[in-house]
């Protein structure tokens, strides 16, 4: 039987080949193996008890880091003071009313200054409500006007014409800052337009003073589409506030008198 003797160095060469092949197999296996997923940390802070104290969400971040400009705040309403040029009276009004002196309302633009135009004549001063929030309603205009009627004596000052006392309202007496006034109310309507006027008169220093509060509005159904109706009581409250701040320049002694039948 012949013995086969391996060639010199044959085992060493075979060992090297085996080692290389094994290394290639292990490397291929490592490359084909999928990586283990890494779990992302939860958003939010952890309190000392180990509970999540807050969770950060996209909405909360955008709310706190938004750089969009905020809506501008409405202009604050301030208190204004008007004093007549002749020094006979003054009154306070709020800045959401626009002031017109004498016939200045006739050339004014921007608001319904025609609200100053009443049968009484040209006012000493007129204050017109300028409220953009009412423009989408059936509101037309609102104004307070003050007149001096030197052609009326104390008796005539208290005499209202039939046109000035409408719908059976009659007359009443009110006191404004210590001064007695006689008041009347009248209404008018036509062509889907309506108005209501509150008159107040007093006599002082040979002058008959008259304060007119006038509110005008339209039939809400004449608009297309129909408009919502504004709250009349709220507007009257604003007009009454101006009338309630009328002051004679100096209260004489005795107090001003108004002729009553």
Can you summarize the main beta sheet?
7 strands, antiparallel
Query: What is the spatial order of strands in the main beta sheet?
Result: 5-6-7-11-10-9-8
Question: How much strand content do the residues show?
Answer: 25-35%
Note the run of SSEs as H and E.
Answer: HEEHEEEEEHEEEEHE
SS content category:
alpha+beta
Low-pLDDT regions: 1-22, 24-31, 33-71
CATH class of the domain at 79-248: Mainly Beta
What CATH calls the topology of the domain at 79-248 is: Jelly Rolls
Q: Over the alpha carbons, how many angstroms does the gyration radius reach?
A: 44 Å
Number of helices: 4
| Termini Cα gap | 163 Å
Mean of all residue-level pLDDT scores = 73
Task: Kindly state the percentage of residues in helix.
Answer: 10-25%
Overall number of strands:
12
Tell me what the CATH architecture of the domain at 79-248 is.
Answer: Sandwich
The dominant shape is globular
Tag the structure with descriptive keywords.
261 residues; alpha+beta; Jelly Rolls; three-stranded antiparallel β-sheet; 12 strands; 18% helix; globular; disordered N terminus
Description:
Helix content is 18%, strand content 31%. The protein has 261 residues and is of the alpha+beta class. The chain has a domain at 79-248: Jelly Rolls (Sandwich). Strands 5-6-7-11-10-9-8 form a 7-stranded antiparallel sheet, with helices on one face. It has a 3-stranded antiparallel sheet with strand order 3-4-12. A two-stranded antiparallel ribbon has the order 1-2. A hairpin with a 2-residue loop joins strand 8 (171-176) and strand 9. The longest helix has 23 residues, at 10-32. It is globular. Residues 1-22, 24-31 and 33-71 have low confidence and may be disordered.
């Amino acid at each position: 039987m012949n013995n086969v003797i391996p060639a010199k160095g044959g085992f060493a060469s075979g060992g090297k080949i085996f080692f290389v092949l094994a290394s290639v197999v292990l490397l291929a296996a490592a490359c084909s193996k999928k990586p283990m997923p890494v779990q992302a940390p939860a958003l939010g802070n952890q309190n000392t008890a180990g509970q999540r104290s807050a969770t950060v969400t996209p909405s909360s971040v955008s709310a706190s880091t938004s750089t969009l400009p905020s809506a501008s705040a409405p202009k604050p309403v301030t208190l204004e003071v008007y004093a007549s040029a002749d020094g006979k009276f003054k009154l306070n009004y709020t800045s959401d009313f626009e002031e017109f002196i004498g016939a200045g309302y006739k050339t004014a633009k921007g608001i319904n200054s025609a609200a100053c135009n009443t049968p009484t004549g040209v006012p000493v001063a007129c204050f017109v409500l300028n409220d953009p929030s009412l423009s989408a309603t059936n509101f037309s205009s609102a104004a307070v006007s003050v007149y001096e009627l030197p052609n009326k004596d104390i008796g005539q000052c208290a005499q209202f014409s039939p046109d000035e006392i409408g719908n059976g309202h009659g007359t009443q007496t009110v006191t404004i800052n210590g001064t007695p006034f006689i008041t009347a109310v009248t209404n008018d309507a036509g062509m889907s337009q309506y108005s209501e006027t509150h008159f107040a008169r007093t006599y002082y220093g040979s002058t008959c003073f008259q304060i007119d509060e006038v509110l005008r509005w339209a039939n809400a159904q004449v608009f297309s589409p129909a408009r919502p109706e504004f709250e009349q009581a709220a507007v009257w409250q604003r007009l009454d506030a101006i009338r309630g701040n009328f002051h004679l320049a100096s209260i004489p002694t005795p107090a001003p008198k108004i002729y009553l039948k």
